[in-house]
Amino acid sequence: MADVDGNKTTDLVVNHFTAFSILFNDGTGKLTLTPDIEARSLALDMLAADLNGDGLPDVAAADYAAGSVSVRYNQGVGTFSPMKSFVAGTSPVCIAAGDLDGDGALELAVASLQGIVNVYFNGCLH
Ligand SMILES: [Ca+2]
Ligand SMILES: [Ca+2]
After folding, report:
1. DSSP structure class, residue 117
2. Under a CB-based contact definition with an 8 Å cutoff, are residues 62 and 92 in contact?
3. Distances, alpha carbon 2 to alpha carbons 55, 68, 113, in Å
4. Predicted confidence (pLDDT) per residue in 6-26, tens digit
5. Phi, psi at residue 7, to the nearest 5°?
6. Counting ligands in written order, which one lies closest to the CA of residue 53?
7. Which of 7, 9, 87, 104 is 20 to 30 A from 115 in CA distance terms?
8. Mean pLDDT on 26-30
9. How far is the CA of 74 from the centre of ligand 2 (A)?
10. 3-state DSSP helix/strand/coil percent for the chain, to nearest 5?
11. Residues 42 and 65: beta-carbon distance below 8 Å
12. Separation of 105 CA from ligand 1 center, angstroms?
């Protein structure tokens, strides 16, 4: 859940494992579903967080089958940048975002089935 379109209401990001979609909340109880937005194969875990500091939540996923973490930057209402992927080793299953080095920008941490955690510092995500 995140305010994807910046209208001060909480929208829903729905993970379909090979794609995601957004349920935009207009604030009156009406939800509007976007067409599917492509993700990598078998994205087991997904989050929405502002990774580039523009005030709009971006979408990042742990791509189990592809062994990668992928990021799509929010470009405004219902549109996202082309996917940017980073190697994440074998079987990444969980993803989290947090400011791990205290510079105010979010990092990504991705855990694999083997118990390995890869950290992607914000400066490397763009
Ligand atoms: Ca953003
Ligand atoms: Ca940081």
Report:
1. E
2. yes
3. 11, 23, 27
4. 889 999 999 998 889 899 999
5. -100, 15
6. 1
7. 104
8. 92
9. 19
10. 0, 50, 50
11. yes
12. 11
